[in-house]
Amino acid sequence: MSTAFGGILSFIASFAIMASIYAIFSMGLNVHWGYTGLLNYGIAGFFALGAYASALVTSRLPTGELAHYVKQAFGLGLPFLVGIAAGAVAAGIIAAIVGLLTLRLSEGYLAISTIGIAESIRIFFNNESWLANGPQGLIGIKQPLRGIVQPASYPFIYLVIVLIFLLIIYVAVERGIRSPWGRVLRAIREDEIMASADGKNVFFFKLQSLVFGAMIMGVGGALYAHYSAAIQPGVFEPLFGTFIIWTMLTLGGTGNNKGAIIGAFIVWALWSWSTFLIMKIVPAGFETRAPYIRYVLIGVLLVLILLKKPKGIVGEERTVSRY
Amino acid sequence: MIELTVYGIVLGSIIALGSVGLTLIWGITDLFNCAHGDQITFGAYIALLFSTMFSRIGALGSPVGPFSFGWGVLIAFVPSIVISAIVAIAIDRWVYRPMRKSGAHFIAAFIASIGVAWALRGVIYIIWGADFHFYAEGLRPALQLPLGIRMRVDEFFIVGLAWASVAAVYIFLNVTKMGKALRALADNPGLARIAGINTERMIAWAWGIAGALIAIAGVLYGIETQLRPEMGWIFLLPLFAAIILGGKGSITGALAGGLVLGVAQQVSTLWLTPTYKPAVAFMIMILVLVFRPRGIFGRRQAT
Amino acid sequence: MKILSVENVVSGYGSMEVLHGFSMDVEKGQIVTVLGPNGSGKTTLLRTVFGEVNPREGKVFFKEKEIGGLPPEQVARIGISYVPQEHNIFPSLTVQENLEMGAFIRVDDWRPRMNDVYGFFPDLTGRKKSRAGELSGGMRQMLAIGRALMLNPEMLLLDEPSTGLAPFLVNQIFEKIVALNQQGVTIVLVEQNAQALRCAHKAYILEGGEKKAEGNAQDLMKDAEIGKHYLGR
Question: Do C147 and B190 touch (CB under 8 A)?
Answer without folding.
Answer: no
